[in-house]
């Protein structure tokens, strides 16, 4: 078998990918610190517990990205002649399923707390020689849990957009939306303080619905990616006008009579077939190779295009 | 103007530090007043007890923590603490001696305000009620007249039918069940306060640790906070262990 040539990554892309990788490691370190702080202040608040699980879920996208990144740069080989680029999409799908399942579990937990009329018991915070209401400790932990993801999310968003990396964009969105979780949990804790026992479970339910929403969005996106969707913008999922651009570029060639394309998104890259109708009957391999080079020059994201001469475009 | 006299951070000069201090003080005032009102009881246990003028306390026997006396106020460490707490709030105490399950059932349904019985943090009812933070940590230990630890497999006296016999076996000692530990010669396995009451020295061998708590209705955080504050303060002012030792004597 003849494997594809490896994707020729531009130095710009290389540099940005390295930055994303560093940011993802930083995310893992900071999220772990948040998880520890939250654990020690959590107490018996359902909202805190749910926010804590949500914070742990924030580890899933960075981990899946880092793991996928290890494989995707392997050159295509005999066993996987199309290469390993799709590993990021696969890890995206897996993490979407994990997030969705956890979200459903969290909603069940919160709803059963509401039905059972769980009254959260919160007394003194008794660590480091401090004796204050433990709710204040929880709010402090929640404030801390909101800030690092907000900053990291902002930076990852920009890089994800530049690299058209869906995993990174999804992760950044989750990070940026994390403040809602923090705010909801804070309201839950303040509600407990105000003597409203249901505020806690209600906040937990709100958080879990947010997580489910994330899970569903990512799952849809993940399935569309693996179904070889037409090339779309990674952030807005709108079709790119890149097929039109490719056709226009090739139609400029004097030897070409008509062009059509069949493209698919392959993670950040775009692959597929180009069908050409030539003016003359006999086409040489050199001419085809020339057309392919011309096609791939249209955008650096084109990867492994094949050019097929056909008699006519309609079947 | 001499450059040296210019402040290094001009921005700070425009906003004098006093400004920040004022805000911080305001925030602190807010927090403190908020702390006073915070947290509240969803079912109003503390307010209702104050309206009623009595604190309804369920108890079951567990000496030296709780020692009921027919027709009068119970003795033991925990009734003493509860009485002190009620005095501080200006409340009478209505004592209700009953079985543990009944007591917790009544507490869960807000028919009692407090349940005591020498419970620890691991008590099986903790899922249905709220518990205070541990107001006292105790250990069960091996003690000897000299404080020297017994050799492995050596006989160690232990109260008959006590869990400590099993714990001794798991640490490779030979339990010697006895009716009265005062009769024992040599090593004894017992709670710290009991060993101290017997005049024995600790050997450093720990068999079990317990964190003692009292129970309140679930989520009644105002009552809980007041009780915890009292217990923390009581623990600071008197040695609760000395009291236990004296009760045990």
Folded structure, characterized:
The complex is a heterodimer of chains A (315) and B (249). Chain A folds into two domains: 11-226, Alpha-lytic protease prodomain-like (Up-down Bundle), CATH 1.20.1510; 242-309, Alpha-Beta Plaits, CATH 3.30.70. Chain A has nine helices and five strands. Chain A has helices at 11-41, 46-57, 60-72, 87-115, 134-163, 166-193, 198-226, 242-251, 285-296; strands at 124-125, 132-133, 256-266, 269-278, 306-309. In chain A, the strands form two sheets. Chain A has a three-stranded mixed β-sheet with strand order 3-4-5, with helices on one face. In chain A, strand 1 (124-125) and strand 2 form a beta hairpin. Chain B contains nine helices and twelve strands. In chain B, 39% of the residues lie in helices and 24% in strands. Chain B is of the alpha/beta class. In chain B, helix 4 (77-89) crosses helix 8. The A-B interface holds A 118-124, 126, 131-133, 135-136, 192-197 and B 31, 35, 38-44, 130-133, 216-222, 224-225, 228-229, 232.
Secondary structure elements and their pairing?
The complex is a heterodimer of chains A (315) and B (249).
Chain A (H helix, E strand, L loop, with lengths): L10 H31 L4 H12 L2 H13 L14 H29 L8 E2 L6 E2 H30 L2 H28 L4 H29 L15 H10 L4 E11 L2 E10 L6 H12 L9 E4 L6
Parallel strand pairs in A: 4-5
Antiparallel strand pairs in A: 1-2, 3-4
Helix pairs in contact in A: 1-2, 1-3, 1-5, 2-4, 2-6, 2-7, 3-4, 3-6, 4-7, 5-6, 6-7
Chain B lengths: L9 H5 L2 H21 L7 H8 L1 E6 L7 E3 L2 E4 L1 H13 L2 E6 L2 H9 L5 E3 L13 E2 L4 E9 L10 E5 L3 H8 L3 E5 L9 E4 H6 L3 E12 L2 E2 L4 H17 L2 H9 L1
Parallel strand pairs in B: 1-4, 1-5, 8-9, 8-10
Antiparallel strand pairs in B: 2-3, 6-12, 7-10, 7-11
Helix pairs in contact in B: 4-8
């Amino acid at each position: 078998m003849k494997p594809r040539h490896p994707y020729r990554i531009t130095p710009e892309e290389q540099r940005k990918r390295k930055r994303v990788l560093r940011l993802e490691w930083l995310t893992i370190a900071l999220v772990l610190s948040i998880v520890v702080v939250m654990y020690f202040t959590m107490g018996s608040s359902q909202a805190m517990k749910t926010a804590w699980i949500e914070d742990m879920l924030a580890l899933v996208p960075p981990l899946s990205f880092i793991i996928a990144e290890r494989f995707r740069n392997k050159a295509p080989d005999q066993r996987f002649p199309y290469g390993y680029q799709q590993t990021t999409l696969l890890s995206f799908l897996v993490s979407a399923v994990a997030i969705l399942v956890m979200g459903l579990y969290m909603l069940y937990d919160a709803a059963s707390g509401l039905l059972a009329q769980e009254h959260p018991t919160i007394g003194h915070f008794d660590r480091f020689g401090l004796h204050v209401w433990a709710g204040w400790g929880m709010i402090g932990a929640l404030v801390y849990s909101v800030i690092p993801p907000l900053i990291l999310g902002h930076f990852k968003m920009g890089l994800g957009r530049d690299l058209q990396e869906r995993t990174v964009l999804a992760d950044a969105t989750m990070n940026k939306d994390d403040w809602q979780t923090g705010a909801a949990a804070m309201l839950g804790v303040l509600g407990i303080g105000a003597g409203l026992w249901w505020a806690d479970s209600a906040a937990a339910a709100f958080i879990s619905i947010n997580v489910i929403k994330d899970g569903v969005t990512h799952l849809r996106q993940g399935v569309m990616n693996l179904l070889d969707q037409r090339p779309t913008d990674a952030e807005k999922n709108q079709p790119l006008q890149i097929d039109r651009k490719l056709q226009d570029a090739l139609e400029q060639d004097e030897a070409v009579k008509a062009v059509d394309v069949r493209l698919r998104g392959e993670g950040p890259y775009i692959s597929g077939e180009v069908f050409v109708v030539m003016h003359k009957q006999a086409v040489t391999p050199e001419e085809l190779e020339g057309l392919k080079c011309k096609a791939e020059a249209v955008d650096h994201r084109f990867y492994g295009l094949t050019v097929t001469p056909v008699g006519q475009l309609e079947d | 103007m001499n450059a040296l006299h210019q402040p290094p951070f001009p921005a700070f000069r425009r906003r004098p530090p006093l400004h920040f201090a004022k805000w911080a003080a305001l925030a602190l005032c807010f927090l403190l007043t908020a702390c006073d009102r915070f947290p509240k009881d969803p079912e109003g246990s503390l307010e209702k007890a104050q309206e009623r003028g009595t604190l309804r306390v369920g108890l079951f026997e567990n000496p030296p923590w709780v020692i009921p006396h027919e027709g009068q106020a119970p003795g033991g460490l925990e009734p003493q603490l509860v009485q002190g707490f009620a005095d501080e709030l200006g409340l009478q105490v209505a004592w209700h001696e009953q079985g543990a399950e009944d007591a917790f059932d009544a507490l869960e349904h807000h028919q009692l305000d407090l349940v005591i019985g020498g419970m620890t943090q691991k008590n099986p009812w903790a899922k249905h009620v709220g518990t205070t933070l541990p107001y006292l940590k105790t250990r069960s230990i091996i003690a000897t007249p000299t404080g020297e630890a017994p050799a492995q497999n050596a006989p160690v006296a232990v109260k008959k039918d006590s869990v400590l016999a099993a714990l001794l076996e798991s640490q490779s000692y030979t339990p010697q069940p006895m009716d009265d530990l005062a009769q024992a010669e040599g090593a004894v396995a017992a709670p710290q306060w009991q060993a101290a009451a017997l005049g024995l020295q600790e050997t450093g061998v720990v068999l079990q640790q317990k964190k003692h708590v009292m129970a309140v209705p679930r989520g009644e955080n105002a009552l809980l906070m007041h009780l915890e504050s009292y217990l923390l303060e009581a623990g600071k002012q008197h040695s609760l262990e000395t009291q236990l030792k004296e009760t045990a004597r």
